Amino acid sequence: MLGWGTDERVDMTSRWRVCLVLAALAAGCSSVPARNGLTPSVRDQAKPLRVQVAQERNAVRTVRLEDYVRAAAISEFAPPSGDPELIERMLEVQSVIARTYALANRGRHRRQGFDLCSTTHCQLYEPSRLRTSRWAEAAAIAVRQTAGAVVWHEGGPAVALFHADCGGHTSTSVSAWGGTERSYLKAVRDDGHNDSAHAQWTYAATTAAILDAINADPRSRVGARLDAISVLKRDASGRAATVRLKGARELLIRGEDLRAILARDFGPRAVRSTLFDVKREGGSFVFTGRGFGHGVGLCQAGALARLRGGARPAEVLERYYPGTTLRAAN
Ligand SMILES: [Zn+2]
Ligand SMILES: [Zn+2]
Predict the structure, then answer these.
(1) Which residues neighbour ligand 2 (ion) by CB within 5 Å?
(2) Is 24 in the same domain as 155?
(3) Cβ-based neighbours of 2, under 8 Å, separated by 6 or more
(4) pLDDT single digits (tens) 84-100
């Protein structure tokens, strides 16, 4: 138990209630159907999810949505040690995102006979954390505080993407991967309290190791040697949008694709983001960058800094998904 006074919990509950009432009011003047409780997503909310659980030898389990959210919230956010109340508020943010993701993506694996997988392909879901994590109780409180709340945009759950650390500037889904533009996924500076929230990193790898990694994928296969890696084009956030690889062959590759390919050999904590510079030093390439992850949507490092500075969870969600509303979907 976290040892909070009852008053504080009551206060937090009422905080969400106010948000949800506001969201319901806002929904009345948008294109959201007025008959609350009758949209398909709302009906779906009550249905349990069918989740393929990697931790349980890929068994497909039927899980109540709120139970799924409780485990997903602590699977996708590894709280630093620190103020329990701050962590609990961050878990409120993460719970709303996890719930929104589940509703928006229910049926993603329909052809395989379940709704969601439990890996990063969908959203991490590791139910054993409910037994082992020191934050399991905080997650349970956060899920209760936010019960049913989702990030809503134009009649449906939003695409509530998030990442660990934007490095000081968020990016759009279009510049990361192409595809559909979402008005609420913006490339903006993540400033204010957050100037010191973002981390810098350096990663060096030998030319031979990089060559092995990039030759393993047809999109980056340069052949027998690698002479240069250079950033040809940057997006509005400063991320490497297009990278040129020059070797026996010369080719252009999207920055996010190169990061994913390098992560297969070096792990996700090597080249942590596409917000990088790269230069050759002797027999190695040295990447120096900021942030961790794709940079689209909510920045966890920034969100935590905002909560620490006194922002409420609902304000944090509004900040990273501007133009959306919080809505009680049940
Ligand atoms: Zn999946
Ligand atoms: Zn950030």
Answers:
(1) 166, 190, 299, 302
(2) yes
(3) 84, 85, 88, 137, 138, 141
(4) 999 999 999 999 999 99
